[in-house]
């Protein structure tokens, strides 16, 4: 590395540190759960996405071990070569049944599912409409696809409608070649993409209105329900089930397996033509090693437990209700969320970091979420709950918040 290049990296890192935006990792020992050993110290943890408390479930571990015994540790190849195993295939069928779609296709991660799906469906000349607060992977997916990216106001179907109605501005149309009439260009395809449950805010997308608007403009709707599946809806089947939306309303559904289901990976669900299109065209599916088949066996176990033990979901909702009631009474700035993601917006990144540190000094881990993960001025503590938390844990969190919140207010005034 040349000296000026290295100096630039160092200066960028220092600037980041000064702005309170420096990110550092912590090392966890042992199992994920309500209590964890983080950087060598016992902590009460309120920042994992293991909503149903399945990530350390012995039945998943047993399924993983049995899967490894049967299939080995690695898949050995991409899905389109010899990596697609019986376990993957069975999991795809079970995921499709779970979300009520004809087919599902496994991806290694949610990030890759979004990149692969959007880029397989769209290209230059097409448009993708994205909620401003969508997950970063959907934003990157739009950019990778080469389609024109239009971002609309958060959770605002009217803003989406206006954006869809705007004619496609195109340099080629604005400046037609001198002696040719401007070609009547087709508007191309339009895809609307939205988180189902917004990952940093916990609120639900207004999907019935988004679906109506998309359909009125001939656009498709793709929903990434990473935080809804397993948690939201009468049977934990996610935000589409909550709103009773069918495949006509939302043709493309993305789910992830590393959150409520406690394993790793992701899937896209839809009809046969969608899935076959992705198999032919999604580069993040084609050009990568299939995930370990044993992992698919662990996820199959997770699906069975999530279905057989509704108490996990019920308990989670009771914990959220307890937290919201307590936080409201304490005057904390709750958001509009009814899900296990309960942000407390602090405004500045420094304040979020100070509050997170003050909680940690009391043995409680809540992560500070800062720009660019969230927009400028909306840094926050992102509190999340798991079915493994107890009421006493929630009460401890509330007591600690009541102590540190006003102090931070005074300190940062
Ligand atoms: C976590 C998340 C992803 C990424 O999923 P991974 O499997 O962790 O790569 C995608 N979309 C949303 C909304 C997420 O919250």
Detailed description of the structure:
The longest helix has 21 residues, at 391-411. Strands 4-10-9-8-7-5-6 form a 7-stranded mixed beta sheet, with helices on both faces. It has a 4-stranded mixed beta sheet with strand order 1-2-3-12. The protein folds into 2 domains: 24-51 and 310-409, Aspartate Aminotransferase, domain 1, CATH 3.90.1150.10; 58-307, Type I PLP-dependent aspartate aminotransferase-like (Major domain) (Aspartate Aminotransferase, domain 2). It has helices at 3-18, 58-71, 79-83, 86-99, 110-121, 136-145, 157-165, 171-174, 207-216, 239-243, 272-281, 283-286, 293-308, 311-329, 349-361, 391-411, and strands at residues 28-29, 35-38, 41-45, 103-107, 127-131, 148-152, 190-195, 220-224, 252-256, 266-270, 341-347, 364-365, 367-369, 379-384. Mean pLDDT is 93; it is low at 171-177. It has 413 residues and is of the alpha/beta class. Helix 5 (110-121) packs parallel to helix 6, helix 7 (157-165) packs parallel to helix 9 and helix 15 packs across helix 16. Pyridoxal-5'-phosphate binds next to helix 5. Pyridoxal-5'-phosphate (PLP) is lined by residues 109-111, 114, 135, 137, 195, 199, 224, 226-227, 256, 258, 266.
């Amino acid at each position: 590395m040349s000296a000026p290049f290295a100096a630039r990296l160092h200066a960028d890192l220092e600037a980041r540190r000064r702005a309170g935006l420096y990110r550092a990792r912590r090392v966890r020992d042992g199992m994920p759960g309500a209590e964890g050993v983080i950087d060598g110290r016992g902590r009460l943890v309120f920042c994992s996405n293991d909503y149903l408390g399945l990530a350390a479930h012995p039945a998943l571990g047993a399924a993983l071990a049995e899967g490894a015994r049967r299939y080995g540790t690695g898949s050995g190849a991409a899905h389109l070569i010899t990596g697609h195993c019986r376990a993957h295939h069975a999991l795809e069928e079970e995921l499709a049944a779970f979300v009520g779609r004809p087919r599902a296709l496994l991806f290694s991660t949610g990030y890759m599912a979004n990149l692969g799906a959007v880029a397989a469906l769209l290209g230059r000349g097409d448009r993708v409409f994205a909620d401003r607060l969508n997950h970063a992977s959907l934003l990157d997916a739009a950019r990778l696809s080469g389609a024109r990216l239009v971002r609309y106001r958060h959770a605002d179907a009217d803003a989406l409608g206006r954006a869809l109605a705007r004619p496609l501005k195109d340099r080629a149309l604005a400046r037609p070649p001198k002696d040719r009439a401007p070609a009547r260009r087709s508007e191309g395809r339009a895809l609307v993409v939205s988180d189902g449950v917004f990952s940093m805010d916990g609120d639900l997308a207004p999907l019935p209105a988004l679906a109506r608007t998309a359909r009125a403009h001939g656009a498709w709707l793709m929903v990434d329900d990473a935080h809804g599946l397993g948690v939201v809806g009468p049977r934990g089947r996610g935000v589409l089930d909550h709103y009773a939306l069918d495949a006509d309303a939302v043709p493309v559904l993305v789910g992830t397996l590393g959150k409520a289901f406690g394993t790793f990976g992701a899937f896209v669900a839809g009809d046969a033509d969608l899935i076959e299109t992705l198999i032919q065209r999604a580069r993040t599916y084609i050009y990568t090693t299939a995930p370990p088949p044993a992992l698919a066996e662990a996820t199959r176990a997770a699906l069975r437990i999530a279905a057989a033990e509704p108490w996990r979901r019920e308990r989670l909702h009771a914990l959220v209700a307890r937290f919201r009631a307590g936080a409201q009474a304490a005057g904390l700035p709750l958001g509009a969320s009814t899900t296990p993601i309960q942000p407390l917006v602090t405004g500045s990144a420094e304040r979020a970091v100070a509050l997170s540190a003050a909680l940690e000094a009391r043995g409680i881990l809540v992560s500070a979420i800062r720009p660019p993960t969230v927009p400028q001025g909306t840094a926050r503590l992102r509190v999340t709950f798991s079915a493994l938390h107890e009421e006493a844990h929630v009460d401890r969190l509330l007591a600690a918040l009541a102590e540190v919140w006003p102090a931070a207010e005074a300190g940062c005034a």
